[in-house]
Every structure is written in C-alpha cells, then in structure tokens.
Amino acid sequence: MSSATAELLTLLIGNRRYAVEARCCHEAARPGPVTPLPFVPGYIEGLVNIDGRIATQLDLGRLFAGTGVPAPGEALLLLDTGRTPCALRVQQVGDRISIDVAQVQRLPATAGDAADRCLAGRFSHAGEDVLLVDPAQVGLLVRANPLPSGQPGLVGKAPQRQAAAEENVQVLAVMAAGARYGFVLGSIIELVERQACTPLAGAPAWLAGVSPLRGEPFVMASLPALLGQVVPDGADLPPWALMVNQDGITYGVLVDEVSGIEDYAPSAVTPIHHPDSAIAAVLETRDGELAMLVEPQRLLNMQKLDELRQFAPDVLDTMVGAEQAAVECLAVSIAGERFAIPLDCINRIVAYRPCEPLDTEAGHVLGAIDVDGRVVPVVNANPDVPASFDGWSEYVVIEHAQASYAVRVSHTHEVLQLPAKDITQSVHAGKAYVAAVARYGDELYSMFNPEKLAWSAAAAVRPLA
Fold first, then answer.
1. What are the angstrom distances between the C-alpha of 101 and each of 82, 154, 227?
2. Are 46 and 123 in contact (CB under 8 A)?
3. Domain of 48?
4. Which tens digits make up the pLDDT trace of 340-390?
5. Residue-by-residue DSSP string for 159-185
6. How far, CA to CA in Å, does 85 sit from each of 126, 294, 305?
7. Which of 33, 156, 200, 336 is the most exposed place for a label (fewest CB within 10 A)?
8. What is the pTM of this model?
C-alpha cells in the first residue's frame, strides 16, 4: 500500500457494502463446522478451523444488523486483526479495489455499541456508499486486551478499551451472613424452604445437617462456611435452600434471604479466573455495592467430598446410588507418571501433533487441535512437566458437560478395572485435577478429575466474553 492509496477488499452484508484492508485478509472459504463458545455475545459464533488455522468466527450480518438487513452468510474471510485471527462470515466477498486515502471520511471514535466501534470510516466507490471495517476493533471483540501501540495502516492505532458484550447476566440474588451473592439462574435446580434439619455429630462447620425434601434426605450446607467464613456456634440455620448439583451430588445451599432475579450488564461483572475458586466474578450492583457470583459446581472441593463420605455416608449413598464394584479407567502415562482417566468421559484417542496456539490468557491451556473439523482446546494436565519435554505421542479427547478438551499423554495403555475399595479420595497439593489415588497390583495411579479439567478448558474462552 502506497502513502496515497489503499488496497481494499469489499464485502457484501445484507444491503450494505463494506470494505477491509486487503493486507489483513488471508483467504476466503466456505462456512464449515463451528465449535460454539460459552459466555460470548451472539455475533461470536465460535471457533473454526480453516486449513489448519484456528480462528474465532463472527457473523458480521448479526453484528451490523442495525446498519442493514442481515442475510445468511455464504462466505468466510480469514482476517488478521493484529492480535488473533478472525473468520468473518459475510454474504459475499467482493472485488479488490484501490482508493485514495483522502477519500475516506473518518468516523469519530465512539464508546457506543460493538458495531459502531468496528467502523473506522466511509467513502464512495462506483456511486455506492462503502463503510470501512477496522480489523483492530474486530479483534477487540474476541480479545479483551488492547492491541500493541503503533499499529500501522489506514485505520491506525486501536483505542485501548474492551468491547462490551451484548448480553446481560441473569442471577438469583441472595443474602447470607450479611453479604450479597448471586447464583446464575441455570445453576439452580429449585428453591425451597428448609425443613427440619438434623445435625450430624462431629461434622465440619459447613455441613449443617440433613433435611428431607419430598421424603428423601439431602445434605444441607451453609454458604458462608463453604466459602471459608466462620459461622458462630448455635447460630440459627438460614430458612432457604438453593438445591444445586455438583459431580452428580444434589444438595442444598442455605441462605438467609432471596432478593429476586437481577440483570447485570457485562461492564458490571469482573471475572475471577481461578480453577479452585467457587467465586466466578465480582458483581457491581445498581446501588454501587459489590456482590459475589457463585459457581455451585465448584463449591465442594475434593476435601469436602471426603468429609461428606465420612460424616454422611448414608445420605451420600441415597444421592449418588450404590457404590459400584469397580471403576473402568484408561491407564495413561505422562512423562513417566501414571494416571487413570475414567472411561465413560473419553470420546476418542488421536495421534499427537503440535497444537495451534489460542489467543487466551489461560496459562493452563496450551492451544487447540482440530478433531474431525471441530476445534478442541488442549489442557495442560500435568504442569510439573517442563516445556522442553518432547515425549508426547497421543491426545485423549474428553467429553464433558462444561467443555470438550484434549489431554496430551506420552502413552496410552490398557483399560483398568479398579476396585472401588482400592480408590482413595485425595486432595493433591498443587494438582487440583487429581481426584483420587488408585492401587492396581503393585502400582499407584493418580485419577484425573474430569470436572476440574473441564473448567480449565472453559476458562480458556472466558476472556472472549
């Protein structure tokens, strides 16, 4: 591109014509399989694989719905935004044109919606009004961090601000021990008034006792105590129970008050990216106070599950069913260490190849691989292995309700029938993904916790929100 002219590629979206700098465009392709992402606005469709390159796919028709009539996207354009590759789904990729930079009428910097921020200017070509798309701002829609300073080109440096997501977060607002909390609506099975609660002798402070619900006993847990707060001895039990499920166990979380359903704009939600924290984010309420967003699926760590088995074995058996005689696991090794992965969560085993990097700050996610046209994050299942280790041979692909992901291993071995009596629940310091230790013959195997690894995989895409 010379100092006076710009080479652009035109795009048709609905009844409007757009253009983007040609130097940022790599290739055009037909739309294919897309791996959806959680916690993202509707115009971000997910991850897509284009000839081995992993990109985030955006539907520009939906993004620019306010500037024209969106039409079904028939083409993908792989765009380099300066930080992360994006695949733009458009109605049609048009001609390559050359324009005089002086023709471009700059649009003022705006803190408006996402579509406004993605438009850098407008010009007239062949009697048609054309809007200029800013690749840097498109990148900011899928990446919260600002671009490096000094971006060259027609549109210049991107403003250093985060694009807001379009969709609010709906939570059930509650009070417990004088503090405000929120539970994502979809995480609650039901809200009930607590019935008579029978205490359990010698139980930890968080385990309030056992209460009946429609004739069946369920464990009741104190929310403040679960989060590490001290509950005074003899304090009255809260009157409300939020029934939640974690790892197949249904139990009640006791709270003092239920305030109702509240909406939070994304700008009022500050995520907390920590795999061992039950607090997912800090919420700023309309009156300027703070509340904590709780993820019930992570309230019980492995130590608390051990305490459940110790102090309420009969209730646990009622909730999760009779103990199986044996657990089927796939034996794997990672840099000489033996692990066991529950067989019922394994989708397939694929040959090792280097993974494509993902533009994410989640350090426990190494990248992603393509599995039959589907983009699957690769989770670092053993952070003790040095980066220089090159003894990988396979990936084990895990399917989980929270996220699908792949674990790279040195070798896969035989399927083990592990007797339940030989499996000991374990809290492994520094290895939250280890759920238990199993003895098989003369060998010890560390058993993976698929839930923890799934949350690590899901965390990789949360910065995209």
1. 21, 8, 58
2. no
3. 5-142
4. 988 888 888 888 999 888 765 555 678 888 887 888 888 877 777 887 888
5. PS-PPPPSSPEEEEEEEETTEEEEEEG
6. 30, 33, 42
7. 336
8. 0.40
